[in-house]
């Protein structure tokens, strides 16, 4: 595996560092941006989009967290945990100094209610239950006393300890809300809970536990969170964290607006696109910031086709033809995307695991070279044929019934990198005679379509990632809620293919061994299946670049946690 690089720029990036900062007076307002529109909800137990999850994570905590340098699981709201029965049983002791923002104590009853009532009994309808379920069985969560719990799975579930990071809900506040809604049946409670912690909720009515609490939302403009004075962590000098008084997230529509806000000192952190990296690097001294390279992103980007029966013929047959999908993979010019979209700061991507993942299948990491001749042979093997339009001299691809291959390709508006990638992919497919109509959608509209499996034919999007492949079980299991290339098993019109059944089996087996090497064998095979059948065709992985103003203290580079592993330790100089 190799990274295309702009040698001079990378050398400069690796050498840059912020000056030593004075830690004597922590505090201040951190100004940031949010690329996009309002989050759909602040409810972490039903959130299905990155924006909602991002803001909810500031407000609610779980029992454990991961070390940003080692990725090992550490206690958080838990004081300690103990593994027994080879990992099938976990005994958790909670801290006794925890409080909700309304002053009520946080204890084991909140945890038991979150796991058993909200998630297991599906008052909260989300992908969380999919991720926590092994072989169709949800773990047993038993309340032992006010501060102690017992978690047990029928079989060994290797990611389970990490899953204890699931956000804990305030039982007393949720029950109050459901009672006031008049909900009695499960269906009524589910409907009511969908509006719990909506963005219309008054900030002083939100009961939360995180280092910050909601201060205000100005629809379409910004979100502000302020310091939670009841947060339980103290620094070495005995000062209660977080240091920051407030964080202000201003909405921006695109990366250009994001950059202007940063240079105007209206934002102190900028996620730098590869296209802008060389220019941004030249502005460090003038605008008092440093550009940081945190290595490849943990997310993935890809093109995929709607393989569900919601798509009419003949497109249903095209999209379900493995030679058709494989031909597209061979046609995509990934190196061109790396060099021109990412300015050389990235690498081609061929696997469902990111280039940073310890579970990456190294044998597939380099994938295959672009090969248009092979792409055409694959299409011809499935009965497709190539014709030249007499009027325009344009190459046209027709299926075996004479239908011109034409479809719509969606991506979300405002993400310039994704738009540029789409333009190159469309150009590549034009070389195969495919007519691709490019459509931009507002992000939430796009997500709603792909979640329903309706009203779209193909898309280019990205998924955030982590180091635990089972966190993607909601995508890959045939019954997963985010089984985005087809409707999930059990729904009307669902089709479960043989290789999907193997994926189901692999994910079940992989979580039932605690040994990393044994688990990697299963996940290597999972990546082989995706590489072979191409339900999602992976494109390229950019480097993670960020510009950070020198006025921000409390930052450091970590392997897994980025430049600000502990936001509650950040402050303004």
Structure characterization notes:
With 573 residues, the chain is an alpha+beta fold. It folds into three domains: 7-60 and 176-297 and 543-572, D-Maltodextrin-Binding Protein, domain 2, CATH 3.40.190.10; 64-172, Dipeptide-binding Protein, Domain 1 (Dipeptide-binding Protein, domain 1), CATH 3.90.76.10; 300-542, Dipeptide-binding Protein, domain 3. The chain has 20 helices and 23 strands. The strands form seven sheets. The protein has a five-stranded mixed β-sheet with strand order 18-17-19-13-20. Strand 8 and strand 9 form a beta hairpin. The chain is globular, with a radius of gyration of 24 Å. The model is unreliable at 1-24 (pLDDT under 50).
Strand content bin: 15-25%
Shape: globular
Q: Low-confidence segments, ≥5 residues, pLDDT <50?
A: 1-24
CATH homology superfamily name of the largest domain = Dipeptide-binding Protein, Domain 3
Largest sheet: 5 strands, mixed
Q: What number of structural domains do the residues give?
A: 3
* CATH structural class of the largest domain: Alpha Beta
Quick one: how many beta strands? Answer: 23
Distance between the termini: 41 Å
Q: What would the average pLDDT be, to the nearest integer?
A: 91
Please, how many helices? 20
Helix/strand/pairing category:
alpha+beta
Summarize the amount of helix as a percent range. Answer: 25-40%
Order of strands, main sheet, comes to 18-17-19-13-20
CATH structural architecture of the largest domain? Roll
Cα radius of gyration in angstroms: 24 Å
Q: Say what the CATH topology of the largest domain is.
A: Dipeptide-binding Protein, domain 3
